[in-house]
Predict the structure.
Amino acid sequence: MMKILIVEDDLSLINGLSFAIKKQGYELDIVRTSAEADKIWGNRKYDLVILDVSLPDGSGFDICRKIREVSKVPIIFLTAADEETDIIMGLDIGGDDYITKPFKLSVLMSRINAILRRSNGFKNDAELNSNGITVKLLKGEVYKNGERIDLTAGEYRLLCMFMENPDIVLSSEQILGRLWDCDEKFVDNNTLTVYIRRLRTKIEDEPSEPKMIVTVRGMGYKWSV
């Protein structure tokens, strides 16, 4: 059973998080201060850490720095601190995701599941499965209803990103930022549109009326399960 550590001092939020996370089958420890986090971290092994930034006796940023000195465990910041400088700092010091309050529990659970799949994705039988599509992560192979389909490297990365974030709307900027680095500046919104159209042609039953990769007008795209 995977273990998650939450460092959060908001009791009302703790109750909702505890219910949702345990319902998914994860084991959970919750502490409310930096001192408690320091103590319990040394005694347990965790698969994911969720940190609030503002704590009664310190900062989640400091906890993250300490963890990164000894571990590569995935870290999600969950906080009301939504300034761009805070988000940049959280990611730069080793955070894997940064979610601002208020948020939907369903979105948080999708993020948690996606990060845990990625962090444990190098097992021999690691797969993504959804809507009749199977991705064998180690082999880099994609199947639709058991039939192998050929994707380009860009199409493969795009498909994995969608399947790892089910029912979450991803903006074009988010997709471009995660999939292509600064050495590929030629990739823009028009190029992304072409990638999505080609991917739909290969995985959708009716590409002109997509059911999997859905356009959310004015917002972006989502993998609809």
User: Anything to note?
Assistant: The mean pLDDT is 86.
